[in-house]
Amino acid sequence: MTAYELDLLLKYPMIMQRSTCDGEYFGYIKVKVSFRSVTRCFLTFLLLFSKADHYKIRLTRKLQQFKLDINEDLEKYEKEIKRLSKQSFRDPVEYLDKLTQILSIELPQHKDEMTSNYTSICRKVLQEYTELLQFYFNIHKSFISKNLKTINIIQLDEGMRQHSVKIKVNYLNDGKLFNIVEYDLPHKENEVLFEAEDSLITLYEKFMTKVDCPKLQMIFNILDEIDHSCWVIDPENPCRGDLHRRIILGELNGLLGIQLILLIYRHKFIDCNHFGSLWYP
């Protein structure tokens, strides 16, 4: 055991190295926060905003630089963490010491989050989320994060197919409140299907309208029939956003197969392309 490995074990016992060659570390670090402030409107918010002392860490080393995966708990420290990734450190302990120092100091925007304006936004998020669950029966599952910043919804369409959507809440007062950041629907690369809205219900209705589009439902029916009736080799586990299927059409003495790829675009319905023969051992 090297000196820094011993130091790592003593200082950060919950951090483990995945292997000695890939330089990947994962686990948890415990941070003592030097400043705490909560809005005492009612007990629910007191519990929501009490900051956790443990942070989940996944760290990758390349020479003397370290890259940290930024999860939901680390989002507000993103700028500081990116600055760290450009600096050089002799070992992971030195990096984690610096990271712990950053995490132990409450950032100014965290204090601003505890203002009355932040509380009113939280009330609005909770109210609209509650109304959404009460009035829309096609919602199969839903989840809102404990910090009220992320809403995940799985909706059922007329064919009882599931469509997922992830909505982020913007607390920075620099734009609309609700924004769809991930969705399981067909779209072109870099295409924006949904603009941000100040109403969660309005935004969800736009997503629901897109899902229930008759042309899109017809496409989903065709793809479901292909998945059920054909030997699909790509994608291996298709999602609703995948508009292609590569299938095996037949075989000759168990040796020869033919593969096609089915593509569906907005400007044309179905296009079949022959990609040649595929030999099996």
From TrEMBL:
Coiled-coil residues: none
GO biological process, one term: protein monoubiquitination
Gene Ontology cellular-component annotations: Fanconi anaemia nuclear complex
GO MF term set: ubiquitin protein ligase activity
Domain of life: Eukaryota
Signal peptide: none
Pfam families found in the cross-reference section: FANCL_d3 (PF18891)
Residue ranges of every copy of the FANCL UBC-like domain listed in the record: 219-251
Record-given protein name: FANCL UBC-like domain-containing protein
Organism the protein comes from: Oryctes borbonicus
